[in-house]
Amino acid sequence: MIKKSFYKDSDDLPGITSDDIECVAILRKHVPGILPAFGRKMMLRYPGQPLLCRKCFEIGHLCARCEGEKVDWASFVKVFVKEGVVPIALIGEWSRILDEPKKS
Q1: Which domain holds residue 53?
Q2: pLDDT, tens digit, for every residue of 48-86?
Q3: HEC assignment per residue over 42-54
Q4: Of 55, 64, 73, 96, which has the fewest Cβ atoms less than 10 A away?
Q5: Is the residue at 19 inside a domain?
Q6: 6 inside domain
């Protein structure tokens, strides 16, 4: 159930809008803090959520303390589709990166 939705201009980039949507949900398991959806990177926050590193996308630490190797966004998205966490129809425009060869 969506409770609130609003759009605002980004403070750093005039003309770029960001949106915040608050919703109520009962979670059966933890959800990562960032998900690919509708061609956008969706940020999720809730009490008790495990930390998610935005460098290696592993759970349990933040980027500042990361000792892992950098994982690109396309690889992160591919894991979600492969494991069936996010249906391909929900990913939207991110689906194009699933077919692109990795740049060296």
Answers
A1: 30-99
A2: 899 989 899 888 999 999 999 999 888 888 887 777 777
A3: EECCCCCCCCECC
A4: 64
A5: no
A6: no
